Amino acid sequence: MSEPSRVVCPLCPLHCDDVVVNADGSVQANGCEIAESAGSLVNQVARTDKATLARIAGCKQPIRVITSGVDLVAARQLVQWQSDGVIEVEIESDPSLLAIGTVTRRDGIFAATLSEVVTHADLVWLIGEVDPAWPRLEEKQRLDTAISSATDGKRQVKRWERWTADFAGRMHHAIEHPEAIEEDSEFQTRSKHFRDSLYAAIVIGPGAFEADEAEMTAAMVARITRRRNESARCVCVTLDPAATLRSVHAWRTNESLSPMMSDDGDDSVPVIRLVGIGHRTSGDRSVDLQIGGHDPGVELAKAFLPASPWINSMVIRGDGSVTLPLQVPVALSANSPAVIEQLQKVLPELGRAI
């Protein structure tokens, strides 16, 4: 019987490097639901629709391919096929992560790697659905043993489900004008902790901001960060599932990838979703074909093709700091094809070896 494999997890942008795949194919990742459900992805059953697949194969226009993120091998292929005019690649991103990325590219921001935060930060603010999206982030950042109130010499942690633009503005005002804040209010308490910190980290997770005002709120967070760096260190941190794809696209084209277009009802061009890194099912638009992940049902995908999340490749961690090796565990070496291989099968004109 083969020995357990210790591998890098391909399923979320944290890319934990201590995931164990046992000889029976089960996965151990210290209780991470995302990683430990990976075994079920290799036993998915295809749900084909001949008309849909024929329409995709016969389309004379570039096929829309949307994804939250993929590995290095897949990223190179997607960028090449887009350059060849066969597909149009779009990033399917959470509105909050998209907003902080937009603000960063437009205005700049003070950022940091996960290693810097765990080493230096004495105050961490977590905003959004951090735990559901990146279940082991707090463990890796040693935040599960930190405290949530002021104590000398220990890291303080505060969690918020969501910030509105109004809340962000009031927090900024409290930090800048402490004398004008009502005593014993949350703004007074949190702004005091923030001003007293030597190294503050603001972690932005999915759902951190109200969708219709996400960019406005992200701009205020960036302003809070910039202003704080005039007197102490403050950074903004997030994990981008599309870090690998964005990087490859920038290297190859010197341009930024487009976010997913809104569903305007135009169905003249088929849409294919590639389920890769950091995919979340809530609120997904309906597509013609989904490749990888769990079958979402006919309402969200007219056809479905299974794909293995395990691949011999590389990936850039979501904070953009390190490149990590991906590999197929020995126990899962006979799995279904990878996402990019399935895409090549449904688009015969790609005609390129992987």
UniProtKB/TrEMBL annotation:
Highest taxon of the lineage: Bacteria
Protein name: Formylmethanofuran dehydrogenase subunit B
Source species of the chain: Rhodopirellula baltica SH28
